[in-house]
Input
Amino acid sequence: MTHKLELVQPKPEEAHRMPYAPAIKIVGACDLMFVSGATASPLYHDHPHIDDQHNHPCDIGEQTRRVMESLKMVLDNAGASWEDVVKVTKYLTDIRDFDGLHKEMNKHFGAWHPASTTICVNQLSSPGARIEIDLIVALPKKG
Output
């Protein structure tokens, strides 16, 4: 048995106004995968941090593109796609980057709009990081 994801839209006639779904309902059997937050830093980097591994561009679009590439690496490894993502949490150090973040993020999600939360924070894990994103993903049950 596989799962199906359904958008929950209390007012479907107004859905075009939002870049995310108010809720996602998982119907059927599936596994959940919780993806750790990714920044514009390489997915694999040393701990404690080495400054040379954390050179971030100032542009929020470029930082978001790098984040999405790291998240895609995790999705690909699990046999998942952007359409399997049920929840996105975005952490911004400057809420004015909201539109730039979504402009780049939407290139990856296309017409699929998972549930979403955006939080403005004071600082992220490395100097210069302006965006961090984590995911909850619905995966089909195997065997």
Summary: The mean pLDDT is 89.
